[in-house]
């Protein structure tokens, strides 16, 4: 069974999103983050769903949840999906750090 591992940054990103969305609608914020976590679980089950993004880093993949991008790596030999970041597309990926 494939394991799902979150980097520290990817654990913080949903909290930042939750804070931002909760200013407008707390219920929407909670539903969004719940859906985001469900999407990450889907990536654990189907890790090759995302688009390869080797231009960011070797073996990087991207999958979208609504308007946010989930950046992750799938190490098939280890049976691990590592979620690196969850970012809104308005944020420049070149300015972000990826674990």
Secondary structure tally, helices? 2
The CATH superfamily is: RelE-like
The general outline is globular
As for the CATH topology, it is YaeB-like fold
| Strand neighbour order, sheet with most strands | 1-5-4-3-2
List the main descriptive attributes of the protein structure presented here.
alpha+beta, 5 strands, Plasmid stabilization system protein, five-stranded mixed β-sheet, RelE/ParE_toxin_dom_sf, YaeB-like fold, 99 residues, toxin-antitoxin system, RelE/ParE_toxin
Describe the overall structure.
Helix 1 packs antiparallel against helix 2. The chain has a five-stranded mixed sheet. The longest helix is centred in the middle third of the chain and has 20 residues, at 26-45. It is 35% helix and 28% strand. It has two helices and five strands. The chain has helices at 8-22, 26-45, and strands spanning 3-6, 51-52, 60-65, 68-75, 80-87. With 99 residues, it is an alpha+beta fold. Keywords: Toxin-antitoxin system. This is Plasmid stabilization system protein.
What is the compact description of this entry?
With 99 residues, the chain is of the alpha+beta class. The protein has helices at residues 8-22, 26-45; strands at residues 3-6, 51-52, 60-65, 68-75, 80-87.
């Amino acid at each position: 069974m494939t394991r799902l591992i979150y980097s520290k940054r990817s654990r913080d990103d949903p909290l930042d999103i939750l804070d931002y969305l909760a200013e407008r609608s707390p219920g929407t914020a909670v539903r969004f983050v719940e859906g985001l976590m469900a999407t990450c679980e889907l990536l654990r089950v189907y890790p090759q769903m995302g688009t390869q993004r080797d231009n960011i880093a070797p073996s990087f993949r991207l999958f979208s949840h609504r308007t946010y991008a989930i950046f992750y790596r799938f190490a098939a030999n280890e049976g691990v999906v590592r979620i690196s970041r969850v970012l809104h597309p308005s944020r420049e990926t070149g300015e972000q750090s990826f674990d």
